Amino acid sequence: MTNQTRKKPELLAPAGNLEKLKFAVLYGADAVYIGGQQYGLRAKAGNFTFEDMREGVAFAHERGAKVYVAANIMAHNEDFAGMADYFQMLQKVGIDAVIVADPAIVDVCREAAPGLEIHISTQASVTNWQAVQFWAKEGIPRVVLAREVSLQEICEIKRHVDIEIEAFVHGAMCISYSGRCVLSNHMTNRDANRGGCAQSCRWKYDLFAEEEGDLHPVSAEGDETFTMSSKDLCMLEHIPEMIEAGVDSLKIEGRMKSIHYVATVVNAYRQVIDAYWDSPETFVFKPEWREEIMKAANRPLTTGFYFHQPTEDDQIFGVPPKMTAYDFAGLVLAYDEETGIATIEQRNHFKRGQEVEFIGPGRERFIQRIGEMWDEDGNSLDEAPHPMQKVLVRVEKPVKPYDLMRKEKGTT
């Protein structure tokens, strides 16, 4: 199959709030998925009012991108009050599709907002082609596969069905099957399947042995305690295989992640997808793409279920390795070509003499040390300690609005 006879896969990015939506689109996402203030699984994310959605949809559509809304809770009886009105509003706002897991919610949406496209969420645990075929017969145009599906199984699914397949390529992995966890419910009375996950699996735990009625810790004194924490998924180096398997939408996890995470990860995946799609015969993976991902990584990385059943090597035990993390230090607002001075909005403390990196959509980063810097009135500064402070900084290469300035965490 040639690129002329198939469609380039969509890069789908998370957007926890309106600002993150804009960064995701500007840094290369073909579509973003967001949460409204009801019916989603990320109650702690910023989430969107209907007014935010209107602005986000307008911004995305002007740039050729789509906006999807996650409404993927597993509903209880009381959750249906007002649901029809909610979907009608999403349709009026101009949302391109909703992501749904519960069959009853599918019916409500279809009846209330017949023009609103429905995608089946990964929470529905679709792991085989017959389940995909079931949803296809129901008129569903896209299914988001469960994270437990292998690459070989995706190839098999695509041989039997002719609707769109969406699959995760990057982000946090839940320790429970397709995210259907009850630890949070029992430990904090927060329902993970209705948007309240407390991430109980990421807590520290110890094992105890009972001896003559007394409990004794299994781990030695001073040892880091046992956890159930998975490494994070990363398929950056395997995007060619995902494309050749016929995946229609490549999805990044992380509606609660930072702007720096969204921009960095989307930018890296955008470059890999474009490079392979434009010239699959000559494609060579660049190490700097992997380096970029590592600057936004919160945990060590794994390929999840795609190539093998995960083992202890795909989990984090004991003391987790230290990741080289970066802070989002500043946002470029403007650049004067004549003077080489950028106007930067401070997002984390930075100062004169500090090494920083500038990154922007679709181009290579560059590194420099901060030299001269001034406040808006032209007064010389040694540091920028105030959040959202406007600072003028001389930069060594041209920059553009929405470029990010970042610095390694812990640097002085």
From TrEMBL:
Pfam families: Peptidase_U32 (PF01136), Peptidase_U32_C (PF16325). The keyword Cell membrane does not apply. GO terms for biological process: proteolysis. Keywords: Hydrolase, Protease. One of its GO terms (molecular function) is peptidase activity. It comes from the Bacteria. Residues 326-406 form the Peptidase family U32 C-terminal domain. The keyword Acetylation does not apply. PROSITE patterns: PEPTIDASE_U32. Belongs to the peptidase U32 family. This is Peptidase U32 family protein. It comes from Brevibacillus borstelensis AK1.
